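Why this split exists: single-chain examples teach little about how molecules sit against one another. For that reason, every record in the complexes split bundles all components of an assembly together and asks for one structure covering all of them. Below is a record exactly as it appears in the raw files.
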Amino acid sequence: MFGEKAYLLIKELDRNRDSLPPYNTELLSEIHNEVKQLVTENQEDANVSEQSRLVENVSYVPTLKIRHAAIKRNIRCILAYHYNRLKCLKTIRWQFGSILPPEVKANLSQAEIDFFSKYSSSLMQYMRGIGDDGGVNLAVNLKPPKSLYIEVRCVVDYGQLELSDGSALLLKKNSRHHLPRTECEELIRQGVLEHVV
Amino acid sequence: MYVEDLKNEFYEFLTGKRILLLVHYDIDSICALKILQSILKHKEVRYTLCVVRGVEDLKRSHQEHCADVKYFVLINCGGTVNLVDVLEPADDAVFFVIDAHRPTHLDNIFSDGQVRLLWGPNEDAEVPEFQAVYRDDSDDESGGEDEDEENEGEGRAAKKRRLDEEAIMRRRERRLWEQRRFDIIAEYSQYTYYAKASAVAMYKLAWLLNKDDKDLLWLAIVALTEQFLFSKIENTQYVLAAGELQAHTTRLKNRSNDADVATSLKISFEKDLKLVLYRHWCVESSLKYSMFTACKMKLWSHRGSKKLYELLADMGLPVAQSQQSFESMDLQLRKEFHESLEKLSEKYNLEDLIFTSFVLQFGYRNKYCASDIVYAMLAILESSPRDKPEECFNSALDCLSRRHKETLQKAIERAKTITKTLFKTVQAAIDMKQIITAGSFVYYIIQEVREYEINNNNNETKTDFQGSLDWYMLSNQHILLLLAQFILRAYVSMSKNKKAPDLPLIISAPKNLELGTCIVLGIPPLRQLSPKNNLGRAFEEAAENINYDVLSDYFDTSYFEIFTKDRTRFFDALTALFDK
């Protein structure tokens, strides 16, 4: 039946909602062939219809219409497939940064890899332009933080921490501090500080 | 220097600055800290928190941070010591002090801006005049120089005689002035007492800034109840302060929000009983181990426990019910519990069992009265032998936030053990007659673990563990205070001595086994209603008399620390002092 393979393609994408399955080259080429076949069949029948219009009035128009619908369906599915993969890729860029982990890279086609690098550089160029003094890395907080300052508790004995205004802060185990978010984020990620709600 | 306009000169002043918060290790300061934290969140203030247990800790924390931090906020510590002398800060360092301990050190009051006290002069009683205590020393010398310039014409001998006389007069006057100054300062600082709780003052600031809410009000309530339960303030002061907080409670009541029980937070002002943790315990235990009932009905004796059962029978409470936890008693009995006790209070000599307090309710199951929370926090802060003070501090902060219910539950369980231990210690003390009268005061010494080891060689491990748990708990300030009050009341109720209510109590507990020190606390006699305590002064004088190097580190001068081997000498000196 027409459009079955396209349906399989979409189902595969649906099964892996947030992650990228490997680029399904064979299925795509099968659909590609199906579309080509449909197009050629359509062209023949269109020619026959055109020629016979003048002589016998044989009309293959309904068949043409069905095949056309099938062709359009296949193309729509292929486009949806590519579009959703790119959307997923963009989310990955925002979450993980501009270096792709190798397991993700293995699942991409060459065109997608090219798209990713161009998207990444475009984003970097934009981020460098906004904000003063070198740009703002928008990918740090995907949701806007509720407050500029957070209260943290030190979990291990870290020693002296140099703040951005030059002053030093002694981080002993179990000490509590109230600091700007920007200073603490790195340390929270390392596990030295713990955010106290 | 007094800072009365807290909003501009304290709150707005600290915007954007880097400060160090030095917090004393007690319940009032933890509540005050939480309130201050929530209002400082709105200003971009970078702060670091340090927990301070005594003057040494204060010095050390200051030393560690004085290179980077210029503004210090001291909560419940430092008001009674001369900050500039003790800490030797840089000239541009500023100290903001909010302290409930009194009397405030005179140097802090008359400081010219380096030490700023966050209350008004009306809260410090009987502060002497500036002239009486400080004197410009340069007056003397400049007087001498003027004389020299003027009298060039006079004869040398005559001038010298005149100068000599004047010098002698000035010296005499100076000596008299110093004598008077010494007397004034001695009289000013002889009594130690507590003023308004720091948390209540912080709550007022939050109210001024319109940033108050029920959470902060509850913290202020807990701090006030702590002062009342440990008899740090008089009854009348408590009633006045509770009245003010009640006004806030009614103001913050929100009828529409409160209707949704699952998410609302309700604070109500109710009459409450002076029974420890009775809502979370069984009635019989609560009646038996609470200080108030135990002392009035002498529940450590055999006759006393019979009286207890009589009371329960009179109330209509079957013994089986009274031994179950309060929540699982019959609904009818639970509702009538308060009234039945009130009706029988006269017969069993239990007047003053009722006092007015606040109850917090959130969600369907959580109903806590303020004294419950006070005991729970006391258990966290002072009865964990293994944890370091900072960890206990953090647990206490967790316990106050309503998210950590298990912390609170565990703490309440530990508070029950503490109450039982106190009762058993008092019972042992009375049975073995360990409360000794020394003429003009009563004393009780808690023995150390070593003594147990000598006596019971067979059960070494058993008594070891029990002894160590007891004495560890009792070496902390507030538990020791509770024990002292319990013992004094028990002694007075058992004693046939007519002078018993007039005798102060001195109690001593081992503090640090490796260093061999013990902590000594004195509390005023029962008949004295005001909690003003002049035993700190007595300790200092006794120590001077025996030429003892003072080890005391506590901000509250009624606590003292001495070496155990010098204890007997110290007590002898005290006896001599009291006899005078």
